[in-house]
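= Paired protein data =
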Amino acid sequence: MTQQARYELLKTDKGHPVKMWTRGVPVEEEARRQLANTAQMPFIFRHLAVMPDVHLGKGSTIGSVIPTVGAVIPAAVGVDIGCGMMAVRTSLRTSLRASDLPDSLGPLRSAIEHAVPHGRTAQRGRHDEGAWGKVPEPVDSVWAEMAADFRRITDKYPQLARTNNRSHLGTLGTGNHFIEVCLDETDAVWFMLHSGSRGVGNAIGTTFIALAQQDMRRHLANLPDRDLAYLTEGSEHYNDYVFAVSWAQQFARRNRELMMANVLAAARRVIGKPFSTEAQAVNCHHNYVQKERHFGQDVLVTRKGAVSAREGELGIIPGSMGARSFIVRGKGNPESFCSCSHGAGRTMSRTEAKRRFSVADQVRATEGVECRKDAAVIDEIPMAYKDIDAVMAAQSDLVEVVHTLRQVVCVKG
C-alpha cells in the first residue's frame, strides 16, 4: 500500500471494489453488508469510496460515495436532500474574538432560537413551531425565485404541493441539525449551521424512492435490497427526479443562506461590538447527487453523508455536540472521487443512545457549551458518535485542516 493509498479494500464475494478510508475507526458489520450490496449494482462506475464516518443508513450507507453511469438510486441520495453545512468567520478587520462575546451566552442562544424557527410540533399541525407563521419578506423573495421551477415539479406530482415548502425555507429542522457559535484556534468567532431541504426535500425523496421501487416490481428486477431500486436514464421518471433533486439541493443551499443571515442579525443585537463577516463563506452539501467528471468520464456522483473535496475546495467536517469541528481544504484525491467525510459518524442508533445515557451524562459531555441539556437531545450526546480525531486521521490524504473550531453555543431543534 503506497503512502497515497490509505484506503482498505472491503472483502466482498462479488460486485465492484469498495475502497474504505477507515483505518483506526470502527465499522459495524451491518454497514459492511450494506456496502457489499450496493457494490453489486451493475451501473457502479469503477468502485465505491467509503469515508471514515461510515455507518448503517436507511436506503444506503451513510459515509459512502456512489458513482454511477446511466442510473441513479433515489434511496442512496435519501430524503434529507441537499443536507449540508454553512460556516462564516467574522472579519479579521473587525476582529471579533471570544472576549467580545457576552459573559453569559444564554441571551445569545435565546436570540438565535427566536430568529430561526427550529424543532417541530409533536402533532405536526398547521402551526408547526419549526415553520414560519408569517413568512418574512426576504424568505418570500427567495421563494419567488424558486416558485416557477417548483410548479414545474408539482404540475406532474401534485402531492408535493401540500408540503411546508415556502414556510420551511429559512428554518432549521430537528435531529442532528444545529446552529453553533464557535471559536477557532485564534479565538476568532465563527457562526456555523447544519440543515437541508426540510419537508419538501423529504417529500421529493420519498416520492421518487417509491416510484423507483414500483419500476423494479414492474420489471421484476432482482435486487439485493429493495432500497437499491434505481431509475435508469431515459426511463419514465429519471429526468423528473434529476430535475426535482437539483431543485431540492438549491432549496437547501438557499435555506442555509437565509438562516445564516438571521443568525448574524440576531447576534448583532446581543453582541455589543459591531462586526462584519468574511466575504468567503463555506456552504457545502453532504447528501446529494450531481454530474461530475472522474477518470475521464462523466458520471453521476451520489454522496450520502460525504463532502466534495476537490483540490483547494473548502469544506466543513463537524464533530458532535461538545466535540471539535474542522474547516478543511480538499486534496483532490481521485480514488475517493474527490470526497471526504461529512462528520464524525454515529456509533449507535438514537434509540440506543437514549437507552444508554442520561441527562447527567449529557450535562457532563457538553460542559462549557451553552445548549439544551435535556432528555430530548440525549440521542445527540457526543458518546453516540465516533472520535472525530480518529476520523480526521483516517482521511489525512483526502483533506488538510485549515481551521479547528470549538463550539460555545449550540442550538438544536
